[in-house]
Write a structure and sequence with these properties.
- The complex is a heterodimer of chains A (151) and B (147).
- Chain A has a single domain, classed as CheA-289, Domain 4 (OB fold (Dihydrolipoamide Acetyltransferase, E2P)).
- In chain A, strand 7 and strand 8 form a beta hairpin.
- Chain A contains 2 helices and 8 strands, in the order E-E-E-E-H-E-E-H-E-E.
- Chain A has 151 residues and is mainly β.
- With 147 residues, chain B is mainly β.
- In chain B, the strands form 2 sheets. A 6-stranded mixed β-sheet of chain B has the order 8-1-2-11-10-9. Chain B has a 5-stranded mixed β-sheet with strand order 3-6-7-5-4.
- Chains A and B meet through strand 8 of A and strand 4 and strand 5 of B.
């Protein structure tokens, strides 16, 4: 959940889910962005924390969890984390939605009858370009795409 | 002498109420009038899309037409006219408009728009007690909000 909205993200894009208790403000000159104001340390590495509320322009709320993206030095700050769910079909975004949301979402899924945007993990990696963690950058395409299971 | 082929022929339109006014769409563009429960919202950046409906296995964007038409959409909620929207660059998709009462099918001759009407008004229907604007859903849904 991000705010009151539920989202899905490919499970294979997530390396780890952590609590969001130990966030550190991004130090001046470390290269934050409009959507990333914190870092966190895990497994001896420093990660940039991208706030999904800010990226998706949802009213800010205290983050509860961090989704650590696989193969990148980035975590995504979210609210609650619900469960694993098999998504059998991803619907394309309606043509009427032609703005930034086309970068945010891979498409829409139906979960328990609810229209649920499927986030594109790559959208969270943009802020990383200005982040100086001292770690070699990882190509965006190393985040594996969602596998769609045929219906 | 009038040549028969020059006489405007009536076409079918669906009249729908939105607040205190009625508007029309060409009947061939209308898929159905739906009673639907919940408009679901997702974060997005189009101020004229009020949410999404799930209808017959399709995800249908809901156009907040009242914002463009500057009419107060007071009335019963949950009624949606679902029509085909054509985009200028080619694609088309179903789009829902929340309506505030019963719709009506009528046959009438569409007159050309007069005066300074917005580009989404593509014609006028002169009915017994009212003039009804015929809308182009594609232009309407990509309009600026009327102030």
């Amino acid at each position: 959940m991000v705010g009151s909205h539920r989202f899905a993200i490919a499970a294979n894009a997530i390396e780890e889910i952590r609590g969001a208790e130990r966030l550190m403000p991004l130090s001046p000159g470390a290269g934050g962005s409009r959507v990333a104001h914190h870092t966190f340390d895990a497994r001896g590495r420093r990660f940039l924390a991208v706030d999904a509320h800010l990226l998706l322009r949802i009213a800010e709320a205290p983050p509860q969890h961090i989704l650590v993206l696989g193969g990148a030095d980035v975590g995504v700050l979210v609210g609650t984390v619900d469960r694993m769910h098999d998504i059998r079909e991803i619907f394309p975004l309606p043509f009427a939605l032609r703005g930034e949301e086309r970068r945010w979402y891979r498409g829409l899924a139906l979960i328990d009858g609810q229209i649920t945007p499927v986030l594109d993990p790559a959208v969270f990696l943009g802020s990383r370009e200005t982040f100086r963690s001292g770690i070699a950058p990882v190509a965006v395409d190393q985040v594996r795409p969602l596998e769609v299971v045929p219906a | 002498m009038t040549v028969l082929s020059q006489v405007p022929r009536p076409s079918a339109f669906v009249l729908f109420p939105l607040g205190e006014k009625r508007f029309a769409l060409p009947a061939e563009s209308v898929a159905e009038l739906a009673v639907s429960g919940k408009v679901q919202s997702i974060p997005h950046t189009n101020p004229l899309i009020g949410g999404l409906l799930l209808r017959r296995g399709r995800i249908v964007p809901v156009c907040d037409a009242a914002r463009v038409l500057a009419t107060s959409a007071t009335g019963p909620k949950g009624l949606y006219l679902i029509a085909n929207r054509r985009f200028e660059d080619g694609p088309q998709e179903w789009t829902a408009i929340g309506v505030t009462g019963d719709c009506e099918l009528c046959n009438a001759v569409m007159l050309p728009p007069t005066g300074k009407l917005p580009s989404y008004v593509v014609g006028l229907l002169s009915l017994e007690e009212e003039i009804v604007e015929v809308l182009d859903l594609g232009r309407l849904a990509s309009s600026e909000v009327r102030k």
